[in-house]
Design a protein that fits this description.
Layout lengths: L25 E8 L3 E8 L9 E6 L4 E3 L1 H8 L6 H5 L6 E6 L3 E6 L7 E9 L11 E7 L6 E6 L1
Antiparallel strand pairs: 1-2, 2-7, 3-6, 3-8, 4-7, 5-6, 8-9
């Protein structure tokens, strides 16, 4: 058969890209908590100034899924319980994207104040994980590629 048609091809190629260095002015910490919860904290050491908007990314653990209702109730929207949960610690969540691999949280900025977000996970039904792999926890400026920090967590 013969005929006429149209095709769209999209190609992305990356080559000779220099990896940006980690920004040592950013401090990250993770503290596991009871009931499949964890506290993810960050700040930027002085004399460095706060960044503009930043993206915090947390890989989901093996066999775990984010309790999205808990997250929305406590961090997103006007009815947020954020300050009640974290007392004087606050981070402003602008938006978030939760996919099968990770949670991306858009925060107001990486400031010189300690900021934390507490996440709760649920186990997939019927899944048992004996030796979970380490996960990536990172944060970086949305506008400045070289302002970022990454750590591996259990």
């Amino acid at each position: 058969t013969s005929g006429y048609g149209c095709a769209l091809v999209q190609v992305e190629s990356y080559y000779n890209l220099k990896r940006s260095a980690e920004d040592d002015s950013i401090f990250l910490s993770y503290r596991p908590m009871k009931q499949d919860q964890g506290r993810y904290c960050f700040y930027r050491r002085k004399p460095k100034n706060p960044t503009g908007m930043a993206i915090m990314e947390v890989e989901h653990g093996s066999g775990l899924v984010l309790d999205e209702d808990h997250f929305k109730r406590n961090y997103v929207g006007k009815n947020s319980n954020f300050n009640q949960i974290n007392n004087s610690v606050s981070a402003v969540v602008k938006r978030f994207e939760n996919d099968e691999d990770s949670l991306k949280i858009y925060v107001d900025s990486i400031t010189n104040r300690f900021q934390c977000i507490q996440l709760r996970y649920k186990m997939f039904e019927g899944v048992q994980v004996d030796e979970p792999q380490k996960r990536v926890f990172s944060i970086g400026s949305y506008y400045e590629e070289d302002v970022r920090k990454t750590i591996l967590i259990n």
